[in-house]
Amino acid sequence: xxxxxxxxxxxxxxxxxxxxxxxxxxxxxxxxxxxxxxxxxxxxxxxxxxxxxxxxxxxxxxxxxxxxxxxxxxxxxxxxxxxxxxxxxxxxxxxxxxxxxxxxxxxxxxxxxxxxxxxxxxxxxxxxxxxxxxxxxxxxxxxxxxxxxxxxxxxxxxxxxxxxxxxxxxxxxxxxxxxxxxxxxxxxxxxxxxxxxxxxxxxxxxxxxx
Length: 210
Hints:
By secondary structure, this protein is mainly alpha-helical. The protein has helices at 6-18, 23-35, 37-60, 64-68, 70-93, 102-121, 124-133, 146-179, 183-205.
């Protein structure tokens, strides 16, 4: 399969999608600006780990349920939107503000990791992306089982996307260094909280699977 004519198309399409800014980039950028580079990297890792649930679901054919069960899709979408809005609201209200001191900052990183895993697991758009994107590059006539092909391609996509996410985090951390310790940096958690709330509202307002 990996030596087939589909491989070049798959690589180009994956790189193209990875270079397109999306909600995940905004999410990780906001976490970086609010809590620092290490928190942003934890957010990227959380998104990466959460994505494996969708890869496994696509490999097992379970992702198709979201396409054919609008109620399930709606429930998952609203749960993910509510979680993003809650995270953003907590940041705005000061519960997840930029922490002072290395010890407190270190305590925030596992929390960001857990939050990011949940955010990605509750994102139905990721499941539908794998459901619509990967089948174009699966070869039923190949020696590898279709489910295994789904899994291999999904892992490759996830690794490429995560590489782009890390670059976004590093860029955001540079911006944070430019801001220094002034008023702009102190306001950043509220700005980033507003971004998360906006992402939640956008997710809730989007239409269902097509």
